[in-house]
Write a structure and sequence with these properties.
The chain has 234 residues and is of the alpha+beta class. The protein contains seven helices and six strands; from the N terminus they run ααβααββαβαββα.
Length: 234
């Protein structure tokens, strides 16, 4: 009868809609699982930032994506072994996670953070081709200062040293930029730790910034170095 045919058509339509809904839900679950697996393969298991190889690959892709200037920062916790010995490895792991969170919270818009191993982290970012050393220097100083103040609070304070290198992307080669930033980090460590070294081919020499004393604004200690770096740039 007519009513029976209408009922069958309505049933088929409802069944088709249900099947489509179930297929869509399964597809979404599959995409979520894939995203989870991909993230797990790319992320450092402790901190959630990119692991070493994924960081290298992502930075190379970023540098090749568009004309830009590239920033490479290498960050290291000061006396991390002693920190582990004093407070225990679980607290050391907590400190690594805290450092990763601070770096992620301060990474530039076109940037990324990776853990290279142990307590060594790296941050890379792309800037417009006409970006000045002075502007990027201010970004790096702000990031470093935020990290210093975040980690230096509480019952178990810690400090970091950072080496930064800023260059044109058409000259970009990951290992050479990493080596330049790592050399700046080494210089910061040798000079007493708790320091930032910023280098660029456009600067004659490097900018050296020390951590301010708790009762002294950072600008008081860094103003001379900033003014000297900008004078050298001119």
């Amino acid at each position: 009868t007519h009513e029976l045919r209408v009922s069958v058509i309505a049933f088929d339509a409802a069944r088709s809609a249900l099947v489509n809904m179930l297929l869509k839900q399964e597809s979404e679950r599959a995409h979520r699982r894939l995203a989870f697996w991909e993230h797990g393969a790319r992320a450092d298991s402790l901190t959630g930032v990119l692991n070493h190889q994924s960081f290298v690959n992502a930075v190379q892709e970023l540098a090749a994506s568009a004309p830009c200037r590239m920033l490479m920062c290498v960050i290291d916790l000061d006396n991390f072994k002693s920190y582990n010995d004093l407070y225990g490895h679980p607290r050391g792991d907590d400190l690594l996670v805290s450092l990763a969170e601070v770096l992620l919270a301060n990474v530039p818009e076109r940037g990324m953070v990776g853990r290279l191993g142990g307590d060594e982290f790296a941050l890379a970012a792309a800037f417009e081709p006409d970006s000045s050393d002075a502007d990027v220097l201010e970004d790096v100083k702000r990031m470093w200062s935020n990290a210093i103040h975040a980690l230096n609070r509480g019952e178990r304070p810690a400090t970091i040293s950072m080496g930064a290198y800023f260059a044109d992307a058409h000259k970009f080669e990951f290992q050479s930029m990493y080596d330049a930033a790592d050399a700046a980090l080494y210089a910061a460590k040798e000079a007493g730790r708790r320091q930032l070294r910023f280098e660029s081919p456009r600067l004659s020499g490097s900018l050296h910034v020390q951590e301010a004393a708790q009762d002294e604004p950072a600008e008081v200690l860094t103003r001379h170095f900033v003014e000297q770096a900008l004078a050298d740039q001119d």
